[in-house]
């Protein structure tokens, strides 16, 4: 029974994560934490949940990237620039997790999830960071409806922001996309479809790097990882398909509600556990 549940978690998390560029860890981690409290997975620790989630996201990111390549929505240069900051941040985050106990982990992760939900609510009200087009990176993108977007940023600012995002990725096993997508849209005025696709490309690369650190620290539960991978691969393809068919506003509204529920529950467990 638990194996079917894990496969379903991987499928659902990857579908949603790939659809809006979160990677899936933001669902996998709290889901596994919750069913652990029910005694369904009694032999897995919070640090193993994080490591297993990050390792699984290698396959979510790979599957999503293959799908978004076909739609030509990935900004490869930006993905590599952000990776230059997120890689060292992710390694440091993976190292820091050893200092967290289960209750502190729930509390901090719950606060992080609530923060992400607030950022997503306010994203349309925040103006992008101004930048010098001559010294920064600029690009134009035309979506399927024919609307043209121009976006850009200062590479130094992009790297600094991605360092913080990488740290959170390694610490909480959420792939970085939970903050990277809002950051690209809020700060750099990325078109949503480009932000999602670029985030999944970056998640694919950064998850490989962060997983190396977690493997070396023994933070991967290999049996559960093998159960998550098939659902993660298929779910990522489902997410890419839905991304090109559904309105993102509807999915974002659902995600906000899910994040708030998850965040409040984890904070409660962290304070009362």
Automatic annotation (TrEMBL):
GO cellular component terms, A-Z: plasma membrane
Pfam family, one: TauE
Signal sequence bounds: none
Key words of the record: Cell membrane, Membrane, Transmembrane, Transmembrane helix
Places the protein is found: Cell membrane; Membrane
Origin superkingdom: Bacteria
Membrane-crossing residue ranges in chain numbering: 7-37, 49-68, 80-97, 103-122, 156-189, 222-244, 250-268
Membrane topology: Multi-pass membrane protein
PANTHER family: MEMBRANE TRANSPORTER PROTEIN MJ0441-RELATED (PTHR43701), MEMBRANE TRANSPORTER PROTEIN YJNA-RELATED (PTHR43701:SF2)
Similarity comment: Belongs to the 4-toluene sulfonate uptake permease (TSUP) (TC 2.A.102) family.
This protein's name: Probable membrane transporter protein
């Amino acid at each position: 029974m638990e194996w079917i549940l894990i496969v379903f978690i991987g499928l659902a998390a990857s579908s949603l994560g790939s659809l809006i560029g979160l990677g899936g860890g933001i669902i996998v981690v709290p889901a596994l934490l919750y069913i652990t409290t029910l005694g369904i997975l009694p032999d897995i620790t919070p640090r193993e949940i994080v490591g297993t989630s990050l390792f699984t996201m290698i396959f979510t990111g790979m599957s999503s990237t293959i799908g978004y390549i076909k739609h030509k929505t990935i900004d490869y240069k930006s993905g590599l620039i952000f990776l230059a900051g997120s890689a060292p941040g992710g390694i440091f985050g993976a190292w820091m997790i050893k200092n967290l106990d289960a209750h502190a982990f729930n509390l901090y992760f719950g606060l992080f999830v609530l923060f992400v939900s607030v950022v997503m609510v306010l994203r349309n009200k925040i103006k992008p960071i101004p930048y010098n087009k001559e010294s920064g990176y600029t690009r134009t993108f035309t979506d399927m409806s024919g609307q043209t977007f121009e976006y850009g940023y200062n590479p130094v600012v992009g790297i600094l922001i991605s360092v913080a995002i990488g740290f959170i990725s390694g610490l909480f096993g959420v792939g970085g996309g939970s903050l990277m997508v809002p950051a690209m849209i809020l700060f750099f005025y990325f078109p949503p479809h480009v932000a999602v696709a670029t985030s999944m490309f970056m998640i694919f690369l950064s998850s490989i790097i962060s997983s190396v650190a977690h493997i070396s620290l023994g933070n991967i539960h290999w049996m559960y990882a093998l159960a998550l991978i098939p659902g993660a691969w298929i779910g990522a393809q489902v997410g890419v398909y839905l991304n090109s068919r559904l309105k993102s506003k509807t999915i974002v509204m659902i995600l906000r509600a899910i994040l708030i529920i998850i965040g409040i529950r984890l904070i409660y467990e962290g304070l009362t556990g």
